[in-house]
Amino acid sequence: MHRRITRPLAALACTLLAAAGALTAQQRPAEAAVADEFQQVTLAKGVAETGEPMTLAVLPDRSVLHTSRDGTLRLTDAAGTTKVAGKLDVYSHDEEGLQGIGVDPGFSSNRFVYLYYAPKLTTPAATPPGTERQPTSLRTTG
């Protein structure tokens, strides 16, 4: 008796799945409306204008500060002109370097920008011998 119920239920489930697939294939998703005040603008392009990009912050005048891992801080104005705004001496081995930027909430009056970076200290420029990551294998028991 169990087999007698299982086959019709499986056939019904397959039919419902096929019908659901056909219905969703016919429905087209609505295209997202783009607000008039938004536009897509290429701010900086290529290694000379971006370096190895990490983060960005938009300023009140619509210019953009963007960081590069090597310690370079660039400013791209609303017209798309990019220039170097500053350069920090950073430790940039592995995942280090100039990592983040934040604009102070009172930037319009105090002009404060905060940078998160790894300072260059007496750290080795490369991975010290014997500290490389080694492949690890684990064995589970039980």
TrEMBL record:
Keywords: Signal. Residues 133-142 have a biased composition (Polar residues). InterPro entries: 6-blade_b-propeller_TolB-like, Glc/Sorbosone_DH, Quinoprot_gluc/sorb_DH_b-prop. Residues 1-25 form the signal peptide. It holds the Pfam family GSDH. Residues 52-119 form the Glucose/Sorbosone dehydrogenase domain. Residues 123-142 are annotated as: Disordered. It comes from the Bacteria. This is Glucose/Sorbosone dehydrogenase domain-containing protein. It comes from Streptomyces fulvorobeus.
